[in-house]
Amino acid sequence: MGKFHGHAYPGLFLFCNGLYQAIVIFSDSLQSLCPPKKKGRWARLWKLSYEGLLKIVAGSLLVVYVNNCIEGGIILMDRELPPRFLYSKEWQHLTMFTLLILMGCVDVMSKNMLPQRCVVLEKGALALSFYELLLLMVSHAKGSSGIELQVHSLLILVVLLLLLVLTVELWAPEMFQPWMMETLLILVLGSWLIQAGFILYRPVSGYPWDDDDMNDLMFVTTFFCWHVMCDALCLFGIYGFSYFWHRCYYSSLKMMGSKEAPYHKSTPEPLYRLLQEIEQPEKEDQAPLLAKSSPRDKA
């Protein structure tokens, strides 16, 4: 597991999961403006927890990958006397990926099996998994030094910050700001995990990083800061694109709604109230005009 693919694959999954979560935030906000979907044969497919299913599939594939990295399969203890534990880091990776599978199972159960979705259960399982992940990461970095220690320390920092945000979401699961911070930290965790694979196993220069060189240690932190800025810009780009798409879609929906009656039924409540407030002054202005013109009609 201590190879390039062992860091790149989980990092790629986390980064894609962060992108998916960023898109979902705006898709939920746009759902009120969309016309109601017709109920058909495939209506249930749209209600499936694809994120939970993806976590289960990705976690299972990573578990198989860890087991195949060890010749003869991963075992817990040897047969010598006294017996000793083997493959400590591989077992830690296996535990991390098992947590990913359990998180996916909780998501599927909450969204597709329970009578009503329980957001607190999902957030609680996610926070508990990251509590355990933090313990595993701290223990995982104990045998490291130099560049490897610096890389894992920054990973631990991201996990710790993410854990604090998830703890806040247990009491405020519907707040927008913690969800944004969670998405950004997941993006940073995924992209930095990919970068860790390049730093430790496939340096771009073709030469390994020097643990005794202070410049290399400083540039590890510099690259991490660049990742934070780039991920923040990526998140800003997603929301900027979604905002302009929302404006274009809203304007087109408003023009279509003036021509076809069915779209007036799908008008969001705040917009409907605003239209009522605009129509009422118009009616009040028209009433005096009719009253003044009535004597002329009689004459």
Automatic annotation (TrEMBL):
Its main location: membrane. It is a multi-pass membrane protein. Belongs to the TMEM45 family. The chain crosses the membrane at residues 12-31, 52-76, 91-108, 120-139, 151-172, 184-201, 221-245. Keywords: Membrane, Transmembrane, Transmembrane helix. It comes from the Eukaryota. It holds the Pfam family DUF716. It is found in: Membrane. One of its GO terms (cellular component) is membrane. This is Transmembrane epididymal protein 1-like.
